[in-house]
From TrEMBL:
Pfam families reported for this sequence: NUDIX
A GO molecular function held by the record: hydrolase activity
Cofactor(s) needed: Mg(2+)
InterPro entries: NUDIX_hydrolase-like_dom_sf, NUDIX_hydrolase_dom
Species: Microbacterium testaceum (Aureobacterium testaceum)
CDD domains in alphabetical order: NUDIX_ADPRase_Ndx2
Protein's recorded name: ADP-ribose pyrophosphatase
Matches recorded under Gene3D superfamilies: Nucleoside Triphosphate Pyrophosphohydrolase (3.90.79.10)
A GO CC annotation given for this chain: cytosol
GO BP: any one term: ribose phosphate metabolic process
Segments forming domain Nudix hydrolase: 38-166
Key word Glycoprotein present: no
Amino acid sequence: MAWTTRSTRTVYENRWIHVREDEVTGPHGDGIYGVVRMQHPAVFVVALDERERVCFVELERYTTGRSLEVPAGGSDGEDPLHAAKRELLEETGVTASDWSSLGRMNALNGIADAPEYVFLARGLTMTDAAVSQREEGIDAVRWIPFAEALELVASGEVSDGETIGALALAGIRLGRFR
């Protein structure tokens, strides 16, 4: 049985998210469904240097605490590749000469409409242009060998779902899971 939306109302909205409450009829009958819609897609960057190390940022998240993640952020309505290049530079001071799209993901698809684009960045150059690390609460940029990054996922030290998904897409593209 398909879902039917009988009515919808906006509960909250800001420049990043839109929250609505829908009266629905679904497989189990009538009910209320809360949905968070991101105002713009997010981007995630798996930046891999010549030594096969992945670039991570370490920061404190208000919602979940300490986190080790790949560089990421909102697209702010711009082209996802352009946004990925901007986020990598802003968060890490790194630029890349070789960019590949790894695919699209959906965050929290049980409660959210939150599209995400994942990119692989290679041919890296370090600059001094990490302009918003302090603004975004980034405490450190860490370079971790790809295999060790997967071990950190397995141990739970890397627990950000989008980072795990981005690493999986990169691992598939790079042939690391065969």
